[in-house]
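Slack export, channel: ligand-projects

TW: morning all. Re-posting the request from yesterday since it got buried. We need the structure predicted with the small molecule present, not the apo form. The ligand is zinc ion; the SMILES is in the block with the sequence. No rush, but it would help planning for next week.
GE: picking it up
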Amino acid sequence: MSRQDLSSNNDNNNERRYCICQKREDELNEQDDNDDFMIECDGCNGWFHGKCVSLADRIADDIEKYFCAECSKNYGPSIFKPKQNQHRRDYSDGNAEQKPVQSGTKDFIKQLKRKTFLDCEPVIVRAKGDQLTSEHLFANGFTKPILISSRDGLELTLPDRTITLQEINKLIGPEQHVDIIDCEKQVIYKMSFNDYVEYFESYDRNKIYNVLSLEVSNTKYVL
Ligand SMILES: [Zn+2]
Ligand SMILES: [Zn+2]
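GE: finished. pasting the full token output, ligand included:
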């Protein structure tokens, strides 16, 4: 499987047509979304836009052999990289045995769950919302983590505790894109918040995707 960003496509053959959208070489860069990528079919060696074949980059990265819709009829569905280890971000690395456990991997999480941690009480300060004022911080400094036990008086506008992802999705609009990190691979991808919510609520989640940040200014969320 080969994947390439559109900007690095240097073939000068202008007659050749690409993808199911039948673009010419010189039209390939006109796609208004510069996050799009192309993937090569291992059956016909044709190139396809991820978007045109509904394939997200986060999934394409896990594919070892990609077959387009036409070729799938003969070769079957695309083949995913085999999982050869449970402790490396490159889980198809067959020579991983001697390599150390990396954070985010399945083995790392197993080890983390077995670990016991020291009580945090000696290193935190507890305060109520109305005690956390600038005067208090100027007088006492901010040298330890502060755990706010009651949000009353914080003068921060916080959403209702029962707010759901669906409600946030409605407020910020489904076209809002977020940076997510595939925790196991430690690779950052972009996805629409709508896709994120769909993935989060699906039953066959085999990945942990963390949203890195969600920009809500200029959306109904804050208005
Ligand atoms: Zn296309
Ligand atoms: Zn093909």
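GE: first-pass observations. Helices lie at 57-60, 69-75, 106-114, 134-140, 165-172, 193-201. Residues 165-213 form one domain.
TW: perfect, thank you
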